[in-house]
Amino acid sequence: xxxxxxxxxxxxxxxxxxxxxxxxxxxxxxxxxxxxxxxxxxxxxxxxxxxxxxxxxxxxxxxxxxxxxxxxxxxxxxxxxxxxxxxxxxxxxxxxxxxxxxxxxxxxxxxxxxxxxxxxxxxxxxxxxxxxxxxxxxxxxxxxxxxxxxxxxxxxxxxxxxxxxxxxxxxxxxxxxxxxxxxxxxxxxxxxxxxxxxxxxxxxxxxxxxxxxxxxxxxxxxxxxxxxxxxxxxxxxxxxxxxxxxxxxxxxxxxxxxxxxxxxxxxxxxxxxxxxxxxxxxxxxxxxxxxxxxxxxxxxxxxxxxxxxxxxxxxxxxxxxxxxxxxxxxxxxxxxxxxxxxxxxxxxxxxxx
Length: 353
Known about the structure:
By secondary structure, this protein is of the alpha+beta class. It contains 10 helices and 15 strands. Strand 12 and strand 13 form a beta hairpin.
């Protein structure tokens, strides 16, 4: 052993947490999580969440065999307390016929005057949409009391979506999308919507946001279709466009590490940034492996996210694991929490600490 190189300490087994696919009887728990976010993808509305849970159950079970509007909701459970403490979501395709993916493309238009011998750069926006949109990652919530723990539970919730996409790769699009909220006013009002969207629709932000879950015709019909010059917007509006708000910074940083980047597009309602990545170039998707598993009682030095996909039920967790010889070797506690059965295969990927 090189005396100058410190020996890696074994990765200790994390606490008793497990990720799993959501069930219809999770409504109360999901509603409590949604109240911390109340977003387009995870609204604090019991009737809409009931529909989301039903859609998720059908999607995990593969009924129908494949559909662009499939939704897969993951929940993080504290098994010691029997409590759901976090969630994350995958939408197979955000942008379908009749319900397009909308965005404002941000770009710079350079104009030059030969008379004056000077150039001017104009910050511009232009409405765009597609009915063959990307796969979207969203709905990430972790209860405040579970943030900052040594298990890094936010990593679990964020990265399980990418491992699941690798496991069912054919069901997802070539591009991945994540949307982040910008900084909002203290009363929850979107400065961008108040200055822009409200003038063309006559709707307040919350009403427009809820309506757009099922209907986006009013945006396509009423928003200007030409070039919008940000030079005419107040500076207190412009400074937040395309910027991640403080509450969303940790989640955005995780996906930056996973290969996502700002794509110069913003959400038409609040001006928050869209991040995108090529699905097959995301390291966690590219490095994912499907293998048999075996129990290993020897402490491992690497940490892997492990997922078992049984069709209608998916379970996952982070665990100290050793991959070699075509097998993933797991501690007995990790195998038990995943309810692994002899002969089953698992998906796994190494995750940096």
